[in-house]
Write a structure and sequence with these properties.
alpha+beta; two-stranded antiparallel ribbon; 8 strands; 182 residues; 15% strand; 7 helices
């Protein structure tokens, strides 16, 4: 939970930073008797902000102009994050620490193993096969890529973007849908 002292500290800090409270409003909240009794590691908005600034920033944006063989009406710009940096960011996110599965396993509905249960990436036969192919101590990561055409503007020529989204199949699907993580 670094730079915070505990999960409780991190959760309060996360909530406070996602609200639209001003620094003085955060100070008022932190000075409430019930909050002061909870022994947080920060007691003022300034201390909270100093701890937040110590958090990793996540992947940096990169930019390239793409040159094509065919003439285009508008230049083609590519904005992106490095894929490895994105995956490292997911793996180091404390909210996902208990939600990422690194172990392949086979689960059956009954003792006689007639019906195999498939409800996560690491429970599939192919995951099991691939895990056996990699060195001892290494773990399989399933990378999910998806894309969807998204309209960016109405007023300046109906421009569209085609974002490519990346995630890990190892993250429990029940965690992916939680609004708190977004």
């Amino acid at each position: 939970w670094y730079p915070f002292a505990s999960q409780k500290d991190w959760e309060v800090a996360h909530w406070l930073m996602r609200t639209n409270l001003s620094m003085s409003e955060i100070d008022k909240y932190l000075n409430l008797d019930s909050v002061m009794e909870s022994s947080l590691s920060f007691h003022h908005a300034r201390e909270l902000c100093q701890q937040v600034e110590m958090l990793p920033s996540g992947p940096c944006w990169k930019y390239e102009d793409v040159v094509t063989d065919c003439p285009m009406k508008c230049p083609l710009h590519l904005f992106y994050h490095d894929a490895i940096d994105c995956l490292q960011s997911l793996l180091s996110d404390p909210q996902l620490a208990d939600c990422i599965d690194f172990n392949c396993r086979k689960v059956y509905k009954s003792v006689n193993r007639l019906s195999h249960v498939y409800n996560s990436f690491m429970m599939g036969n192919h995951s099991w096969y691939l895990q056996c192919q990699i060195p001892q101590g290494a773990s399989l990561l399933g990378v999910i890529l998806s894309s969807d055409k998204t309209k960016v503007t109405n007023t300046s020529g109906n421009r569209y973007t085609h974002p490519v989204l990346i995630s890990l199949a190892n993250i429990a699907s029940s965690s992916c849908a939680k609004a708190l993580l977004h």
